[in-house]
Amino acid sequence: MEEKETILVTGGAGYVASHVIVELLKSGYSVIALDNLQNSPLADEVEKPASLRRIEKLTEKVVTFYKTDISDEGALRNIFRLHKIDVVIHAVSFKNANQSPLLPLCYYSNNFLKSLTLLEVMKEYNVKKLIFSSSSHVYGVPQQLPISEHHPTGIRCPNPYGRSKFFVEEILKSLCDSDENWRVVVLRSFNPAGAHESGLIGEKHLRASSNLISYIVQVAAGRKERVTVFGDGTCMKDYTHVTDVATAHVKALDKLREGSFQHWVAYNLGSGRRNSILEVIRTFSILVRKRIPYEVVGPRRSDIGSVYADITKAKTELNWTPTKTIRDICVDSWNWYLLKTKGSTL
Amino acid sequence: MEEKETILVTGGAGYVASHVIVELLKSGYSVIALDNLQNSPLADEVEKPASLRRIEKLTEKVVTFYKTDISDEGALRNIFRLHKIDVVIHAVSFKNANQSPLLPLCYYSNNFLKSLTLLEVMKEYNVKKLIFSSSSHVYGVPQQLPISEHHPTGIRCPNPYGRSKFFVEEILKSLCDSDENWRVVVLRSFNPAGAHESGLIGEKHLRASSNLISYIVQVAAGRKERVTVFGDGTCMKDYTHVTDVATAHVKALDKLREGSFQHWVAYNLGSGRRNSILEVIRTFSILVRKRIPYEVVGPRRSDIGSVYADITKAKTELNWTPTKTIRDICVDSWNWYLLKTKGSTL
Question: Residue A1's pLDDT is what?
Fold first, then answer.
């Protein structure tokens, strides 16, 4: 196999990034992962976070790791000096959309401000290819469904999380306008959920997660009493398996190499399906053969109703098709939990 | 006179801020001005910039000055520790909209990123009243004219300057949503122009200015050959005298004190009139009794056509009325130039 490119993944110990790294390694890319380990449960993870060690076991490949914050300009420069980096996958993010209205400065600082330092250093070292892990939250309250990439962004975003992602997208647009050597793919994921089918990697902080599936897992495991259902439970959401999200990142790398590539392009990463919260609870319940207690409590201020994607563009232009269903998401999430806590799977 | 509040003005050596400080001092406020003097023509202005010294002469009042960058958290903390600050007027800004597409990271970093540090420190010291000097550029390409505050913002902003202002406005909104103790007035100025009627303060860098009037002054003075007119010269713009913009900032302070004040509010600061570029050139030409050569060269990519404000809201709610005309702007700009270079006025 010919030598593949070297990809720097920011937020490399994070949920989506971990799955992206698995797919990159499987496709033969060299990976450098960067993380400040701020969200790491173990303070002694100074060498290499557990998630990356499990990834190495799973793929039998090595990941180069730097414990550093992307706002640390000096450290970033060192990394760009030491390695010939071809593309950056920028996946640093606080991602609890519902928590973000309470901590707006924190979200803007982490998700947006730090991106500027990264872009400055990339520019300095003439690394001008970037894949940005964005979110469906940039669309805010949908004006029409399903949401295509033509849907306006940045308007009626009810939370700083979505706004911070939108801001980064806009900066990337300005960069591409200012210098035609930049090539940027923006990937807008719709509710990434689930875990790797091996059960070896998944969302670390089930307890703190705002992800519905992680919440259901906690209830099924008896660690939480019931699922709190905001709204009336009938809102249709688009739960996208994190492995599908990850494979799209690899497809985006192929896209960046195309001669005809047009500087800045955004793709929706959705499942191509939709499910109500109550349907998800039911699916999970059948799977684990347990009643999952839930309580319907009415909408939160930051809720935005039904949201699901039109994924025609990603299918056509990235040659990507999501292959996993909501059942896969439930199975893999439960197995990830079981393996982590009990050493067994379904 | 009872003791008035202490106002911290960021970017205090800048064009708009200088005029704001004059009006604050005239109204009896104590002023602390902050500036990194990055745009200062003289590197030896370490004590107090010339503009502030002229302001002190003009008002016979003292301005406390700190040469510091608002991204310097430590220095900011010191200032907030030393002084009981009541309100911050945040006027730090690179403001050349036409230059900004070439230097996007620079604009986002200076106009946006640094605001986050300021807000963090304000929060820490429980100073939660802010007036933000924003710009008509947040409206982007107008969807209808005149532009009222209901006009969408952040959409079709053709330049990073406008986007960076929009981003700050959005962060301030998030802040007010997260904590009801914040009180924010956003002032969206439409082409601030002109100079103080004393001829003592005005725009420092006539040569580097993207301001049409400053450009005309350069041509009238024989320092530039001709005015380059982008578009066809018939676009209607709203040139607002910088002194009118400044008095609105003082009115906004009164607004912040009102018991019924609603957390976050934006006002257009326009002249209530509109003039085409060719009209402005003609007005100036008559005033200085000279032909002002110009060349029509077609639109730039960052041009957004006619832009003028509906100022009903500021008139009604701030009890503010602009009093100066385009002729005043021309007279004051010319006098500022003459006094600076020749020691005489019209």
Answer: 44
